[in-house]
Design a protein that fits this description.
glycoprotein, 7 strands, 10 helices, seven-stranded parallel beta sheet, 317 residues, alpha/beta, 35% helix
Amino acid sequence: MKFQVRVIYLAVWMVFLLVFIRVDFRFSLGDFIDVTERVCGCTSCIMDPQEEPWFIERYDGKVPKLMNRANSNISALTHNWWMRLQPSRSVNLSDVVEPLFSLFRDEEHYSDSGPDRCRTCAVVGNSANLIRSHYGAMIDAHDFVFRMNHGPTQGYERDVGLKTTHRAIYPESAVDLDNSTHLVLLPFKVLDLQWLISVFTTKNITRTYHAVKPYIKANKDKVMIINPEFIRYVYERWLMKKGKYPSTGFIILMLAVHICDQVNVFGFGASANGRWYHYFDHWHRQSIHAGVHRGGVEYDVILKLEQQQRIKMYKGW
């Protein structure tokens, strides 16, 4: 009987030692092995996991962002919605795809995300809250700097920076670009795509719903086109169908959220005195009106993105 007790006691002791050794061994591994899979190469990333579901419920990384031949066959739902944004007499989208990508690069852009990439992006709006902000050097330090429409840099370098890697335009807001800047077209109608082709070929389109430039300086090899599927996705998933369609600034901000690892936002929102106007406007001009856009809804989404540490906003002083 005593022998059996000793055997049981020894067995219990051995089990205890094995458990202790196993726990200690696992603890030691944790000191040397990083079991956390990195989303990107930055210290913090837009796609870092969080418990709050709001972002993940809306985010869809599979939606085509920039057009190419392969993703230009948009859904019937998107086509019908998009064709109603700015109705105009024009051909079908399918009729312009071939000439479009015979002229411009037909490739899949920015599909290189991974644990080794750290792409920092500045999205620079045109708000007057940039005045006397001295953000220029900070903006220029980013890998990508997105600017909208005709927001100038010359004469405003100290506040808005000098670097521009991408400028988002549509025909009615077109400006000349230098040879190193990507022209990012936001097409709200097929005529916008025809205008883009015309700019680099016949130069014969001079009017959409009002007069447009038939020619601008830009690098043909750096042209990019926002996919209508992405515009509709931003409108429905992020703005919950508020307004008629998203603003240029909001679409580009969401593009950055989908192709960058860190996004810093400058020049969005009202000025310090609560007025909405551009940093390059004269003080006496009237405030900006949102028009077809729901500026308040867009701004609330931007604030929510910042609250969840997906982006960082710089609102001036």
